[in-house]
């Protein structure tokens, strides 16, 4: 096994760092008001970060998941909501990049995303189905080359702000609930009637309101591949790896704040070890565990990405699910540990060591595709899949 | 072999349609085979044919239709005969 994971190039990281500076400036205001991180997303557009995953031949930069995950982490250290919008856009874009090249419409749309820096939204959640995205109640209808879909989408992240929405449904009104397709609808092709307001503990800036979606578009905008294949071959890995990048960013910023607190204490009392110093060493180990987990996941993806059979295998699915469980469970103790170090300065809002936003944002991780659902799927697969017991895989 | 497989799909597949309505090459997932049911089916197949599916064959494609399941089983049984 080749252990190297490509590192984001300096130019890309510098662009992301400029976006992060803007995102950090507005993070508390975005969180307090539960508003869309407009400034940060405008900066992503200005730095042309929304199209980087697309092939150079279609106007993009060929950025792989490792680079994008690094960017998610950089943004996550500044504003988790902005980073999550960036991650979710790229998760949808991965479906387009990996499954759209066989269709002329989707290929042309990819070029538009790169040229015009379009923001892609997602509508997989549905009333009556919840987060089980591999099932749909709603069905798309096709007549005379035109498709129509209505969906009670209980969550569409940044639905009001997306330029296009990739939405799942049954493939036709007679299809089984698992016989799904995904369709791209452009902003001018759908209406959204708000049904739920996103007023949450954390990740408030993602504005993941609920909507009644009604769309009509040319039928060629339906992805030619079944959604089951798209979900298995690109969405599973993209979601768990890019989300984990964001969560690593939240955790890393909490650790940075704790370290800054300890260093400030050390400077104040030269010669004496500050009270939080030992905990900081523990915290550094915890962050290393989280980072190792994400890096191993990115490596597993790099190894499998060119082999559709491997991507569709249970072993890969178990590995990606494991990455999600581990990173979503690790960030809470990390932020908590950082708060023990920073004490009241971490608990209070508006200090350089405040960790309330981090803690609230971190709580979303275990719920975004509930860990219980993921563990249940894993436990089913482990009835037949035999775990890889090698160290390097 | 296909008849035995059909029997197991009936028993474990939990499909909304009768299995005799499904062609040998029809997609079982489109017919409503859930991932949980597919694993139950795999366990049933392992038991009935006294085999263990290697991880390389544990993917959607291997169990996507009655014919695909038969091909997957044949691949394992042939290898065993050679050994």
Index terms:
heterodimer; A: 393 residues; Butyryl-CoA Dehydrogenase, subunit A, domain 2; Butyryl-CoA Dehydrogenase, subunit A, domain 3; 3 domains; four-stranded antiparallel β-sheet; three-stranded mixed β-sheet; 12 helices; 11% strand; B: 83 residues; mainly alpha
What is the percent of helical residues of chain B?
40-55%
Estimated structural class of chain B: mainly alpha
Number of strands of chain B: 0
SSE arrangement of chain A, N to C: HHHHHEEEEEEEHHHHHHH
**Rg of chain A, Å, rounded:** 21 Å
CATH superfamily caption of chain B: ACP-like
Care to count the β-strands of chain A? 7
Organism (chain B): Metarhizobium album
Domain Carrier (chain B): 1-77
Protein name (chain B): Acyl carrier protein
InterPro entries (chain B): ACP-like_sf, PP-bd_ACP
Layout of secondary structure:
The complex is a heterodimer of chains A (393) and B (83).
Chain A lengths: L9 H24 L4 H9 L18 H12 L3 H20 L4 H13 L3 E4 L17 E3 L2 E8 L10 E7 L9 E7 L3 E7 L13 E9 L8 H42 L8 H28 L3 H4 L2 H29 L1 H4 L8 H7 L8 H11 L12
Parallel strand pairs in A: 1-4
Antiparallel strand pairs in A: 2-3, 3-7, 4-5, 6-7
Helix pairs in contact in A: 1-2, 1-3, 3-4, 3-6, 4-6, 6-7, 6-9, 7-9, 9-12
Chain B lengths: L1 H11 L22 H15 L16 H17 L1
Helix pairs in contact in B: 1-2, 1-3
Pfam family, one (chain B): PP-binding
Protein name (chain B): Acyl carrier protein
Organism (chain B): Metarhizobium album
């Amino acid at each position: 096994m080749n252990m190297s994971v490509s590192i984001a190039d300096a130019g890309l990281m510098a662009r992301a760092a400029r976006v992060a500076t803007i995102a950090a400036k507005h993070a508390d205001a975005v969180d307090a008001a539960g508003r869309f991180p407009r400034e940060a997303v405008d900066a992503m557009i200005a730095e042309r970060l929304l199209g980087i995953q697309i092939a150079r031949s279609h106007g993009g930069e060929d950025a792989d998941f490792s680079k994008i995950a690094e960017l998610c982490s950089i943004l996550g250290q500044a504003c988790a909501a902005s980073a999550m919008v960036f991650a979710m856009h790229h998760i949808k874009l991965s479906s387009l990049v990996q499954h759209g090249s066989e269709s002329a419409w989707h290929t042309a749309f990819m070029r538009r995303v790169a040229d015009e820096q379009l923001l892609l939204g997602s509508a997989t959640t549905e009333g009556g189905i919840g987060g089980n995205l591999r099932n749909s109640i709603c069905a798309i209808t096709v007549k005379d080359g035109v498709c129509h879909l209505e969906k009670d989408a209980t969550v569409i992240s940044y639905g009001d702000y997306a330029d296009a929405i990739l939405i799942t449904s049954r493939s036709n009104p007679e299809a089984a609930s698992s016989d799904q397709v995904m369709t791209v609808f452009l902003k001018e092709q759908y209406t959204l009637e708000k049904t739920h307001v996103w007023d949450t503990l954390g990740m408030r800036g993602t504005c993941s309101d609920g909507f009644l979606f009604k769309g009509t578009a040319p039928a060629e905008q339906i992805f030619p591949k079944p959604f089951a294949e798209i979900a298995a071959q690109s969405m599973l890995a993209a979601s768990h790896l890019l989300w984990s990048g964001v969560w690593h960013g939240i955790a890393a910023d909490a650790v940075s704040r704790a370290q800054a607190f300890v260093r400030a204490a050390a400077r104040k009392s030269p010669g004496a070890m500050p009270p939080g110093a030992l905990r900081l060493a523990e915290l550094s180990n915890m962050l290393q565990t989280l980072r190792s987990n994400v890096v191993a996941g990115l490596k597993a993806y790099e190894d499998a990405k060119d082999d559709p059979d491997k991507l569709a295998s249970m072993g890969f699915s178990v590995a990606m699910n494991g990455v999600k469980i581990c990173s979503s469970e690790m960030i809470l103790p990390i932020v908590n540990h950082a708060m023990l170090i920073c004490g009241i300065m971490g608990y209070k809002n508006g200090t350089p060591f405040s960790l309330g936003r981090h803690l609230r944002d971190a709580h979303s991780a275990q719920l975004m595709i509930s860990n219980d659902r993921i563990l249940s799927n894993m436990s089913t697969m482990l009835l037949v899949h035999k775990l890889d017991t090698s160290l390097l895989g | 072999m296909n008849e035995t497989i059909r029997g197991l799909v009936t028993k474990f597949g939990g499909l909304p349609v009768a299995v005799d309505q499904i062609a040998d090459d029809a997609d079982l997932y489109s017919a409503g085979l859930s991932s949980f049911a597919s694993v139950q089916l795999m366990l049933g197949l392992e038991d009935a044919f006294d085999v263990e599916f290697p991880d390389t064959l544990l993917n959607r494609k291997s169990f996507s239709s009655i014919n695909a399941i038969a091909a997957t089983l044949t691949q394992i049984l042939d290898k065993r005969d050679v050994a």
